[in-house]
């Protein structure tokens, strides 16, 4: 439950709430008009999510909310109480890169990197729902994420490569589980 502290003027009013970011419950206090992008970057110091157009046109600010890509520049942080927020900072597993991050680094899916956090989070949501997307499906899913550097071909190839890697990893895990069960 959030609480509002009125310190005199509307401009000074702040809300206190708990946000669930990358699996961690974090208490935060912010002005109620702030977007999720602003609260992530300015109040939680999670600056991996990028600040682009702030008009809903570039996708640089995309994060996952309850597993779905959302433009954090158009979302009030207030609306996110009790919801699961995933940002680029939570994508790697400790020091182990997510297969998407590894594929983007290996195949040139990221150049200047400004669009990359939004692209990676949007691609993660896609692969979570479709483990073997066609190039057309990848392009459609990423159509709201603008990139000025790569020409998109490397981005699509990187997502396809990561999808293969994830499928192979899951195949190995289920094969070893089946062997363990048979033992
Ligand atoms: S910064 Fe959010 S869409 Fe561009
Ligand atoms: S890598 Fe530079 S904008 Fe996409």
What this model shows, in words?
The protein has 183 residues and is of the alpha+beta class. It has 2 domains: 1-90, Ubiquitin-like (UB roll) (Roll); 93-183, [2Fe-2S]-binding domain (DNA polymerase, domain 1), CATH 1.10.150.120. It is built from 5 helices and 6 strands; from the N terminus they run E-E-E-H-E-E-E-H-H-H-H. Strands 1, 2, 3, 4, 5 and 6 form a 6-stranded mixed beta sheet that branches. Strand 4 and strand 5 form a beta hairpin. Helix 2 packs across helix 5 (153-182). The structure holds FE2/S2 (inorganic) cluster (FES) (2 copies). One FE2/S2 (inorganic) cluster is lined by residues 110-116, 147-150.
Secondary structure: elements and pairs:
Layout: E1 3-5, E2 14-21, E3 24-30, H1 36-43, E4 62-65, E5 68-71, E6 84-86, H2 99-107, H3 116-129, H4 135-141, H5 153-182
Parallel strand pairs: 2-6
Antiparallel strand pairs: 1-2, 2-3, 4-5, 4-6
Bound molecules: FE2/S2 (inorganic) cluster (2 copies).
One FE2/S2 (inorganic) cluster binds at residues 51-54, 56-61, 71, 73.
In short:
This protein has five helices and six strands. The chain is of the alpha+beta class and 183 residues long. The protein has two domains: 1-90, Roll (Ubiquitin-like (UB roll)); 93-183, [2Fe-2S]-binding domain (DNA polymerase, domain 1).
């Amino acid at each position: 439950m959030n609480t509002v502290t009125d310190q005199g003027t509307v401009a000074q009013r702040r809300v206190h709430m708990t946000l669930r970011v990358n699996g961690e419950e974090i208490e935060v206090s912010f002005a109620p008009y702030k977007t999720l992008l602003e609260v992530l970057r300015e109040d939680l110091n999670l600056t991996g999510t990028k600040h682009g157009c702030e008009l809903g046109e570039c996708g640089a600010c995309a994060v996952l909310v309850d597993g779905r890509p959302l433009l954090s520049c158009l979302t009030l942080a207030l609306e996110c109480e009790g919801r699961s927020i995933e940002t680029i900072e939570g994508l790697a597993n400790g020091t182990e890169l997510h297969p998407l991050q590894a594929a983007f680094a290996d195949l040139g899916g990221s150049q200047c990197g400004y669009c990359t956090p939004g692209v990676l989070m949007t691609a993660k949501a896609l692969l979570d729902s479709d483990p073997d997307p066609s190039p057309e499906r990848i392009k459609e899913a990423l159509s709201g994420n603008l990139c000025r550097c790569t020409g998109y071909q490397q981005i699509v190839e990187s997502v396809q490569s990561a999808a293969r890697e994830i499928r192979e990893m899951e195949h190995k895990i289920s094969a070893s589980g089946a062997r363990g069960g048979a033992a």
